[in-house]
Amino acid sequence: xxxxxWTGRLSLIAVFSGVAVGCAGERPKATMHxxxxxxxxxxxxxxxxxxxxxxxxxxxxxxETKHAGEGAIKLDTGSGFDTWMYFPNxxxxxxxxxxxxxxxxxxxxxxxxxxxxDPWVILRDQEARAxxxxxxxxRLPQTLNEWVHFVVPVGPGAAERFEKEGWxxxxxxxxxxxxxxxxxxHADTGGYGFEMWVDDVRxxxxxxxxxxxxxLTSLERPDLTVTWAEQVPACHRYIVDYTNPWxxxxxxxxxxxxxxxxxxxxxxxxHVRNVGRVKSDATDLVCxxxxxxxxxxxxxxxxxxxxxxxxxxxxxxxxxxxxxxARADTKDKLDEISKKNNLLAFQTDAYTLRATxxxxxxxxxxxxxxxxxxxSFEDWLRANTVDHMNWMLRNSTYDFAPQGTKARVRxxxxxxxxxxxxxxxxxVPIDATDGGWDYPEGSxxxxxxxxxxxxxxxxxxxxxxxxxxxNYQMDLPAQNNAVNGKPxxxxxxxxxxxxxxxxxxxxxLADMDxxxxxxxxxxxxxxxxxxxxxxxxxxxxxxxxxxxxxxNVEVKVYQKKWDEGAGRDGTGNGTIPNTPIMTGxxxxxxxxxxxxxxxxxxxxxxxxxxxHPNPFAHIDVVGRNGVLMYRVNVGDKWYYAFMDIGxxxxxxxxGHTKDAQYEVKLQPE
Length: 669
Prior knowledge:
Shape: globular
Number of domains: 3
Number of helices: 8
CATH topology of the largest domain: Immunoglobulin-like
Distance between the termini: 70 Å
Mean pLDDT: 90
Strand content: 25-35%
Number of strands: 34
Oligomer: single chain
CATH class of the largest domain: Mainly Beta
Radius of gyration: 29 Å
Helix content: 10-25%
Structural class: mainly beta
């Protein structure tokens, strides 16, 4: 068991701290306040968020531009999209809104682009559920260089006043009016950059214009977080050579262990850190596998702010998916900033991801409240990457995968460096984790702006690290179709930039992604897109026109071209050339069976995917030749349709490995 103190992080200065009022139950003692939230002394208790990934934001106290009291709170942003400021940045304003009548505030703006529309206000409860008030009176233009008064009716009994005060309420199911944790002020502009001030922000009682008392104690609290666990010994992912147009594993790499042997002793080095502002009391750390306590139990000593303890937790390896959990403060003795980060849970056969972070990035991200309600780079990393990726892996469900995929990811190691360079990247062998990502200081703006929301781009890139392709590689612009000039794009645009998600879009992985992850589950990663090889052996396609079979018609089949490798002709790569790859005729039922064309090399990967003759010929693992186009002429009228390789992969996942059946709806040109 080891511990050390991280000294590189910038501190957050506590001015006031805590849980606020109005709620039943015992509260830590703290000074009661009846004033506004927008006094200069509270500026460091305000946070910001943005959907923009690139532009900086800053919260400051402004004692010159103000409406009341000693000053106002100002958001200065370079963003051009939804940007917001919120109070408190610990999201622990445990306020009983049923005892309130309204949220009362003043707003002032400057915007070189001009304003349209209204601001919107969001209340968050302790489970991050939203009560969103969308403005209906076009008041933002009025706030340009002028203070404008806003009243937001709150509580379940204020519904009749929403419309009168210029708001439409969208209430997330289960929103808890008795435990409001934070209030957000949002604005959006058509150009980049604006300034927004709020002042005299307070909740007022239902029966009078009196402010509701409040108190803050959270910055006087510790915050234990179980951040990540390293497995020793680490096992090896595949090192794949793509010199040829097919993947090759070197002989010496094939001798390495991919998983521990059944019954082998492994150790999880569980990292626990106090990311709070004060020293924690001594407590416990209990670890379980599949709900059964392990023999090891760690007494957590009192930890100073930013001090870390590493507990060695032994386990005898069992193959398959087992749930490891490490929980700090199991008897809930500590009064902490957040309880959401006391539990680390992961699947023992999850793919491991490395994070190498520059200390400058670590310091800046650790000053912004994250989705776990704490101030911690490690918690931000977990919540915004592996936790959300696992949510997608579990919830991207389809008829062939009603529980999504068994595949999971976890943080395998975090490396803290002064500067990202070649030496820093050598600190962890490339095959010691299934994938990895670097976090330079220059990326902190994106990470801070999106600390409280879904980071689509980062999760997308990390899915690549475990071998999932860009589905948009199969898209075809009209100018690249030399046959009829028709474009191809996939319907739903899932998290990997395409594929079918049953209308759920970018928040979910596509059906072909889940089919691929299930096809390779139980094997280490290192390969990329090899699951595209999973094409049924026989592929008859029924062509339909207006719902009826296109019977006894000549068919031409074209393919998006991608040839690479020694002696291969790359001319026209990325286009559909005006030369069919196969021709034939449908039968009386409109059915045409696609030919199986030869591949450059028949083989099976170590992850269980076999490349064999198929309609696409040699399959590009990036997906660049994974599109077919059908074309028929009926009554001197041309019809066409596209199919991508993902549809074949999904049929294979449905168990139709020998003989699959497809229906394709042709449309007129």
